[in-house]
Amino acid sequence: MSALRKLAGQTAIYGLSSIVARFLNFLLVPLYTSQFVFEPAEYGVVTALYAWTALLNVVLTFGFETTYFRFASKDHVKDNPDGGQVLYATATWGLFFPALLFMVLGGVFSGSIADGLGFGAFASSVLMLVGIIGIDAITTIPMARFRQQGRPWKFAAINLLSVGVNIGLSLFFLLYCMKRTNMGQSNALIDAVYDPSLGVGYVFAINLVSTAVKLLVLLPSWPSVTAMDKDLLRAMAAFGAPLMIAGLAGMVNETADRVILKYLLPADIADAEIGIYGACYKLAVLITLFIQAFRMGAEPFFFSHAKEANSKETFARVMNVFVAVCMSAFLVVMLFLDLFKWFIPNPAYHEGLRVVPILMLANVFLGIYYNQSVWYKLTDRPRVGSTISMIGAAITIVLLFALIPSLGYVGAAWATFICYASMAAISYAWGQRHYPIPYNVSRVLLYMAGAVVLWWGCEQIPLEGVVKYAVRAVMLLGYLVAAVRKERGVLRPS
Q1: Is 113 helix (H, G, I), strand (E, B) or coil?
Q2: CB proximity list for 262: less than 8 A, separation 6 or greater
Q3: Residues 244/62, Cβ–Cβ less than 8 Å
Q4: How many helices (H) and strands (E) would you count in the chain?
Q5: Residue ranges of the alpha helices (H) in 73-200?
Q6: Residue 487, class by beta-carbon neighbours within 10 Å (0-12 exposed, 13-18 middle, 19+ buried)?
Q7: Left if phi > 0, otherwise alpha if psi is -120 to 50, otherwise beta: which for 296?
Q8: C-beta of residue 26 within 8 angstroms of C-beta of residue 285
């Protein structure tokens, strides 16, 4: 089986659990945005607090996931029977103790933190978020170990169990209890287990329980603290610190819009605008899901195949296929947006649909950047990633403050697009000087421009009903056939 086929297989398996986990958020959008559950202002609270969660998670994991993969690929670890266990213990406990301290301090000061964030009425939600963030950090390395060992099914099973718990509790408390209570249809069971005063806090409580389930399942494989190596921990921290900075800057690019909207928009509409923006952001999920699944399979793949004679050509072909798949997802959503929009059943949110194409294209550029990041990881230059991400973060912050006051959340979407496009361009130019990979730039741009022009063209054709969707389906099929013909040799056995 060719290396690319192996990558595709592992991406599919890792993606099964990762896509389901992220797709959960997409599938819950109809529930969250129902007229009987959360209005835009309430959903805005969920969106904004989870933006802060993403930022803190990067800090607590300290770049150790990539660091773990990098150290596991070194000869002195692979050739030593005990080296892998020492590395595993060092990485796991190296994240455990800071996360534990974070949870203790966060729990003690949760009320003050909520006030400082402008969500003083949601202190209990902030307290639960502290637990979610801490547990996520603690389970990072045990989950990464399954990927490093090539055990994608174990990885998928644990993720799917956690997701299943989340789905079940969400359906019970939000769809059954909350919706019936808001519709005046309460009963004895609901009165016994449901507290209406918690409101949006149920989203965080459910997430906390599902995250704790993952931790409990992982406990039997937990390493002994005595296997830690302090010198190794220092080396890992030195390698991981610039990755953490890069990750933090990257997360600023991804989530700062939802944080800053809170403070740049008038207070009486800020939460509602964040809710509308956050809900419509979910419609870019097809691309973001694929990017997440790809990264999980690609990172260990890139490290393990870097020494092969034709590795650079392989990486270039991966880029072609990646962009073709992403732009196909772009067309699926944009050609049938009239249908996808009803995943947000409350029309009060639909004014935000104009940001969907901007955000989808932004995420394609982000995926291209992730592909290109292989060059500085393989050459042990993690500070390059930090530098590019910090440049992107600076672009994001400047543009958010420049555009949001006049354009609102549309300005936030354009800031995201410009940031990711700039990062991809900078990484390409820099990488070609130090680790030149023969990317087929013209083909990548053709895939992107072709999809955008095809979508724009369909928008200009005045068709309605079944004929409209039939024509668009044919256009989509034509794009897919053209892309498959271009890349048809990629996944064939070598």
Answers
A1: helix
A2: 48, 118, 270, 271, 274
A3: yes
A4: 23, 0
A5: 75-78, 83-108, 110-117, 123-138, 140-148, 152-170, 179-182, 188-193
A6: middle
A7: alpha
A8: yes
Residue 158 contacts residue 142 (beta carbons within 8 Å): no
Q: Name the token pair of 165.
A: 């718990």
Number of Cβ within 10 Å of residue 215's Cβ equals 16
Structural tokens at position 457: 């063209």
Amino acid at the residue 184: G
Can you read off the two tokens belonging to residue 285? 């999920």
The CA angle 284-469-457, to the nearest 5 degrees, is 70
| Digit-coded pLDDT (tens) for 57-114 | 999 998 888 888 878 776 555 555 555 788 889 989 999 999 999 999 999 998 899 9
- Token pair recorded at residue 148: 């490093």
Tokens of 437: 């990979």
Scan for tokens 């660091």, then name that residue.
67
Instruction: Return the amino acid letter for 56.
Output: L
Q: Please name the amino acid found at residue 88.
A: Y
Is residue 479 within 8 Å of 451, Cβ to Cβ? yes
Q: What is the pLDDT of residues 226-271, one digit of tens each?
A: 888 888 889 889 888 878 887 888 788 888 899 899 889 888 888 8
Residues 250, 392: contact at Cβ < 8 Å?
Answer: yes
Q: At 145, which amino acid appears?
A: R
- Beta carbons of 360 and 333 less than 8 angstroms apart: yes
Nearest 5 degrees, angle CA 161-CA 167-CA 170? 140
CA distances from 410 to 134, 274, 285, 417, 431 (A): 33, 11, 18, 11, 32
